[in-house]
Amino acid sequence: MWNCSLLFRLTAILLAAMPALPEPVKLILAAGTPLQVSVEQRFAIKRVGEPVQARLVSPLYAFDREVVPAGSEVLGHVARLDPVNRQKRIHAIMGGDFTPLHDPAIEFDTLVFPDGTRMPIKTTVESGRGAVIRPNNDIQPREEDSLVAKTREQVRVGFINARRRLTDTIQSPDKWQRLEQAGYSYLPYHPQFVPANTQVLAELAAPLVFGTTDISPEEASALGPPPPDSVVTARLACSVSSTSPFGETVEAVVSEPLYSHDHQLLLPAGTRLTGTVLDSEPARFWRRGGELRFAFNELRLPPAIKADRPISAINGTVVKLQPIESGGIRVDSEGQARSVESKLRFVAPAIQAFLGVRVIDQDQTGNGQSQGTNKAWRALAGASGFGLVGTVVSQVSAAGSTGLGFYGAAWSVFDHIAARGHNVVLTEGTLLQVRFDPLHQ
């Protein structure tokens, strides 16, 4: 009996002296993981089954490592053709476009790694109407003290950026497709396309497993809230907008592991951040955009980590956003996101008003111009008001061309100046950067 007791004691001592074994952690991309992809080639919106070829914009991480590199090919097809919402339909008709517009719903089924390896995947069916992302070479105006200097600087930078955009358009490989698409916009009925470089978001409908990795108890105990001023990359796990009520819960998932300067893992991918909406204001008329501010106050490590304190208090401020659907959103140092309207929106109403006045001047005075020149001005005024239909009407009736020209100007003034601005809309999967600030005492 004494020997058995001694044996048990010796065994316990040996077990306590042995180093703890590493804990295996599954490398898994859970269902719901967003895939941000960019469509490589333009495809027509005409039938279900149309093949779609895209590439992954940003890499995918599982726990502490990259499992799918950026640039991996994603193959799929158009699963469904949905009609666009009523607001977009009315907006198109007001501009003379009577095409039955459709929203292609895309499903991806194959992931092709850079080495050619293929992996079957299953994604939810998502809209193919995303934002067309092109290189942005715009420069920012310098800070000036006086109002006159600020105006002069904005005008100078505006001309430089306009020239750069024109040069980029002329030199872009898809310039003819873009010109063709612009021409189609004036037709009352035309084919529809999803342009190249359109970024869309798809979610995994089933998990993908990439084996396991080992993490020691010491490494697991070091995980938790990183030091102040650390910035982590995450994706929203829900949708939030400037119409969301105060106090609404906001969740995000860390999409890229965060390491210290000595390459010590601080936060693995899959860590969940939870916060609330602190301030929101919907968009208003006269193109006043919406405003939104939210912050994160809780951090929860992935379920695979058996930490003593699974929930930690944090003070996380959003410092950068990459919306999927649209640009024009600016974030200040306090995490306040605002929808900002482009100053170029005043150009279209001015041009259309000029066309209307020009047609009246030509019809009343002749101004020494030929009949062919008069017809050309009428055609431009009619097209600005009602597309190709307006062009045809303008050749039949001078009064019709004038009326359509001013109709186009009035509609443009409302649409670009007086209408309601854009809300800040951040869809599920929006990429954001969160800065960890010191906790309030």
Protein topology:
Layout: H1 2-17, E1 23-29, E2 34-39, E3 43-44, E4 51-56, E5 60-62, E6 65-68, E7 73-83, H2 86-94, E8 102-112, E9 118-120, E10 126-127, E11 131-132, H3 147-171, H4 175-184, E12 193-194, E13 198-203, E14 208-215, H5 217-221, E15 231-236, E16 240-241, E17 249-254, E18 258-259, E19 265-267, E20 272-281, E21 291-300, E22 311-322, E23 329-331, E24 336-339, H6 347-365, H7 371-396, H8 398-418, E25 425-426, E26 431-436
Antiparallel strand pairs: 1-14, 2-4, 2-13, 3-12, 4-7, 5-6, 7-8, 8-9, 8-10, 11-13, 15-17, 15-26, 16-25, 17-20, 18-19, 20-21, 21-22, 21-24, 22-26, 23-24
Helix pairs in contact: 6-7, 6-8, 7-8
CATH architecture of the largest domain: Beta Barrel
Domain module count: 3
Task: Pick out the low-confidence regions.
Answer: 14-21
Number of helices: 8
Q: Helicity level, as a percent range?
A: 25-40%
Dominant shape? globular
Task: Characterise the protein shown here.
This protein is of the alpha+beta class. It folds into 3 domains: 25-134 and 193-203, Lipocalin, CATH 2.40.128; 223-341 and 421-436, Type IV secretion system, VirB10/TraB/TrbI (Lipocalin, Beta Barrel); 345-418, no CATH class. It contains 8 helices and 26 strands. It has helices at residues 2-17, 86-94, 147-171, 175-184, 217-221, 347-365, 371-396, 398-418, and strands at residues 23-29, 34-39, 43-44, 51-56, 60-62, 65-68, 73-83, 102-112, 118-120, 126-127, 131-132, 193-194, 198-203, 208-215, 231-236, 240-241, 249-254, 258-259, 265-267, 272-281, 291-300, 311-322, 329-331, 336-339, 425-426, 431-436. Strands 2, 4, 7, 8, 9, 10, 11 and 13 form an 8-stranded antiparallel sheet that branches. β8 (102-112) and β9 (118-120) form a beta hairpin. α6 packs across α7, α6 (347-365) runs antiparallel to α8 and α7 packs across α8. Mean pLDDT is 77; it is low at 14-21.
